[in-house]
Design brief:
It contains 7 helices and 19 strands. With 299 residues, it is an alpha/beta fold. α2 runs parallel beside α3 and α2 runs parallel beside α7. The two termini are 33 Å apart.
């Protein structure tokens, strides 16, 4: 902890070291700073809209991980408050009504019933819609990127298949249900933790050629990371897009994009940008680019 210094008015040598934790000077206690009122955070959970009974004003929570979090970790009981979101931008302040689960073991078919009175629009979304595309990475690194991009407000996260990707993937094959479910679970939990109103879309891995063609139709502004190139700095590039509501940023693999991939992206409207002097790992570059975008454009 950094110490602050206070000089006594009676003598230039009469000083005391003052801790920021407890402030004293010559025996006099400093006034406690006014930090305002603190609001207790209510736990948030996303459910499918089909779990919301508008007629009876009840919501079913059926996901085993969410039930375990409520019953075992948070130890919520009937009468306790929590917030439920429908993934469409609405939040339902609820009271836990009943639970069929016990603390010791969550069984198949267990559910929690919550009661609500009304819904309202949920906040927490970025004022600019942006997508981030990055190569499929090793599990731990890619999952870290999913979590952080969700916290930063990405609307869509796109795994792309590049010539230099470390993890090879056959785009003709469907992503395994287990892996896709894990990806969705990560972004859902990150959305709950960061108090977002929506869960970002995580699409199945796309070939780079398919990705750039699709983005030409959906994204108003498109950037592609270009290391070791004389490209416009990301801060300047993003600042010039003020007013744009739909932005896409593509990040390359560890070896960067190939010349052919750059050429293809340029024909579909992508603009090269520089992320700085240093070479970043793919997941670091994706999170850094999203951070700059949010700091510049999110109002």
């Amino acid at each position: 902890m950094t110490a602050n210094f206070a000089i006594s008015s009676s003598s230039m040598y009469g000083f005391a070291w003052i801790s920021s934790a407890r402030l004293y000077h010559r025996g006099a206690r400093a006034q406690r700073p006014d930090c305002g009122r603190f609001t207790m955070r209510r736990s948030r959970f996303f459910v499918e809209p089909s779990c919301i009974d508008q007629e009876n004003k009840t919501i079913r929570i059926e996901d085993a991980n969410q039930i375990r979090q409520i019953v075992t970790v948070l130890r919520l009981r009937p009468g306790d408050a929590l917030d439920v979101l429908d993934g469409k931008g609405n939040i339902y302040p609820c009271t836990l009504q009943s639970s069929s689960a016990s603390k010791g073991k969550i069984r198949a078919g267990d559910q929690i019933i919550c009661q609500f009175e009304s819904a309202s629009p949920a906040g927490g979304e970025a004022s600019v819609r942006f997508s981030v595309a990055l190569p499929v990475l090793r599990s731990a690194r890619f999952e870290w990127a999913l979590e952080k991009l969700t916290e930063l407000g990405a609307a869509e996260i796109i795994p792309i298949i590049l010539d230099r990707s470390v993890i090879t993937y056959d785009a003709e094959e469907k992503l395994s249900a287990t892996k896709f479910q894990r990806w969705h679970s990560i972004v859902r939990e990150a959305s709950e933790q960061s108090e977002r109103a929506l869960i970002p879309d995580v699409v199945s891995p796309e070939k780079f050629s398919d990705f750039v063609k699709r983005q030409e139709l959906v994204a108003a502004t498109k950037f592609i990371g270009a290391e070791r190139a004389d490209a416009q700095p990301i801060n300047d590039a993003i600042s010039s897009t003020s007013g744009t509501k739909n932005i896409c940023i593509a990040i390359g693999a560890e070896g960067g994009f190939t010349d052919e991939e750059f050429a293809l992206s340029f024909t579909h409207g992508f603009t090269p940008i520089s992320l700085g002097k240093r070479i970043l790992r793919a997941e670091t570059a994706a999170v850094y680019a999203a951070s700059v975008l949010v700091s510049r454009l999110d109002k």
